[in-house]
Design a protein that fits this description.
GO molecular function (chains A, B): DNA binding; DNA-binding transcription factor activity
CATH architecture of the domain at 2-74 in chain A: Orthogonal Bundle
CATH superfamily of the domain at 2-74 in chain A: Winged helix-like DNA-binding domain superfamily/Winged helix DNA-binding domain
Oligomer: homodimer
Largest interface: A-B, 31 and 31 residues
Largest sheet of chain A: 3 strands, antiparallel
Helix content of chain A: 55-70%
Keywords (chains A, B): DNA-binding
Protein name (chains A, B): DNA-binding transcriptional ArsR family regulator
Order of helices and strands of chain A: HHEHHEEH
Radius of gyration of chain A: 20 Å
InterPro entries (chains A, B): ArsR-like_HTH, HTH_ArsR_DNA-bd_dom, WH-like_DNA-bd_sf, WH_DNA-bd_sf
Structural class of chain A: alpha+beta
CATH class of the domain at 2-74 in chain A: Mainly Alpha
Distance between the termini of chain A: 47 Å
Strand content of chain A: 5-15%
DNA sequence: CATTTGTGCAACCATTTGGTTGTACGTTAC
DNA sequence: GTAACGTACAACCAAATGGTTGCACAAATG
């Protein structure tokens, strides 16, 4: 339930081109919000909101430095998301394994 | 641009607890829409819409069988999503590598 | 044939999302 | 001290989302 909400926030945050780009940039090099805002064709406030969504999902961390806020991508959360998907693939593999076992089963007749 | 739209659809589709559960179930064992609808406390039409979102993201395939539609989870798309996240992690690793190289660099003075 | 079952789809509604502008406020720079 | 910069936040708006009910229709069942 709690974990579900977290997964919802993470995937929701990743479901936007601008936000994925912000994560990419800040994973490569930290940046202030206004630096980020300069990269996109939208208002400062809009970029600020995208950063807030990413921060709520813990995909990004925001730390003050003087009058600006430095944004850094958080590889931990990316990793967590990847593990969630890995668990899905595992379910599928388990199904294949059951199917294989069934096909290998000797015919009882 | 086209690829971005696809990523948007995939992550958006995964950003909902019910939809992730449908993917889990149909990855484990195929099911009809009404079978799925029976599992959740919402209308048939609501579940139908969730399946449509998943199908548009190619997280699920819908094939007719008699009067019912059989839903199967699509492991290929899960894998694709995981690879997208893997690319993000790779960016981060590249940054660490650059940092290591910088620290290892002999002081020119 | 009549009924039930499974699906598709439209219309509607409340809430959320993604954008805008405007204002306020702390921090640097002159 | 004043001006410029970086941020925060509120109010507003259009569009998308996630749900509902109702109706139509094709396939299985009596």
């Amino acid at each position: 339930m709690v974990d579900d909400e977290r997964a919802n926030r993470i995937f929701r945050a990743l479901a936007d081109t601008t936000r994925r780009d912000i994560v990419r940039r800040t994973l490569t090099a930290e940046a202030s919000i206004s630096e980020l805002a300069g990269e996109y064709d939208m208002s400062f406030a809009a970029v600020q909101k995208h950063v807030a969504v990413l921060e709520a999902a813990e995909l990004v961390a925001r730390t003050p430095r003087g009058r600006e806020r430095i944004i850094r991508g958080n590889p931990e959360t990316i990793r967590h998301a990847r593990e969630l998907l890995g668990a899905f693939e595992q379910l599928w593999r388990a199904r294949i394994d059951r199917l294989d076992a069934f096909l290998a089963e000797p015919d009882p007749n």
